[in-house]
């Protein structure tokens, strides 16, 4: 059976996340430098193989001091773990337009299995004749599962940074 390779279109993709700060507001961030590929059976995405990696140094929350703290050993520890990676083990169709993505997420050298719902936007041809697909991945992880443990208690009770990290990932791929 013939396979198709899909490469990420970074100008139409975003790897985004949100974390609660001081228990009541969200801080948003994204990774600016990343790579992702999909290998599928022609245009059938059931059991497609998906791989992703991001350069941790490209983390961007709109605040240089916070970004530098996130790069430090308190969080991502880019000196020892400069990349975050994901490799799928299954991509299973739930119903038209919806899939479950399961695989291994590696952060700080800690690898854990994760499962996320994926909205598949379909296959389209852009005005230049390129065949494209769109995926929206949402979900939540507990940052402490990967050793991102730093926190600080706040005077009013609670902590400065939530354990839960919500993901909002918009991906556009081009057929190769």
General description of the model:
This protein has 176 residues and is mainly β. The protein has a single domain (3-15, 31-144, 168-175), classed as Lipid/polyisoprenoid-binding, YceI-like (Lipocalin, Beta Barrel). 5% of the residues lie in helices and 62% in strands. The longest helix has 8 residues, at 64-71. It is elongated. The mean pLDDT is 88.
Global mean pLDDT = 88
What string, H for helix and E for strand, traces the elements in order? EEEEEEHEEEEE
- Tally of strands: 11
- Give the helix proportion (percent range): under 10%
Morphology? elongated
Biggest beta-sheet profile: 8 strands, antiparallel, barrel
Strand content: over 45%
Count structural domains.
Answer: 1
> What is the H level of CATH, i.e. the homologous superfamily?
Lipid/polyisoprenoid-binding, YceI-like
Order of neighbouring strands in the sheet with most strands? 1-4-5-7-8-9-10-11
């Amino acid at each position: 059976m013939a396979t198709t390779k899909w490469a990420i279109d970074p100008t139409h993709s975003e790897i985004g996340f949100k974390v609660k700060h001081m228990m009541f507001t969200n801080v948003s961030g994204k990774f600016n430098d990343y790579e992702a590929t999909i290998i599928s059976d022609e245009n059938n995405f059931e059991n497609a193989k998906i791989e992703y990696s991001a350069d941790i140094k490209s983390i961007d929350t709109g605040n240089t001091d916070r970004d530098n703290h996130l790069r430090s050993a308190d969080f991502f520890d880019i000196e020892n773990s400069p990349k975050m990676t994901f490799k799928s083990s299954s991509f299973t169709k739930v119903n038209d337009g919806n899939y479950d993505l399961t695989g291994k997420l590696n952060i700080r050298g800690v690898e854990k299995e994760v499962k996320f719902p994926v909205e598949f936007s379909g296959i389209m041809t852009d005005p230049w004749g390129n065949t494209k697909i769109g995926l929206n991945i949402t979900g939540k992880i507990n940052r402490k599962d990967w050793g991102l443990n730093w926190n600080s208690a706040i005077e009013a009770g609670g902590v400065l940074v939530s354990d839960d990290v919500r993901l909002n990932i918009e991906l556009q791929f081009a057929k190769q």
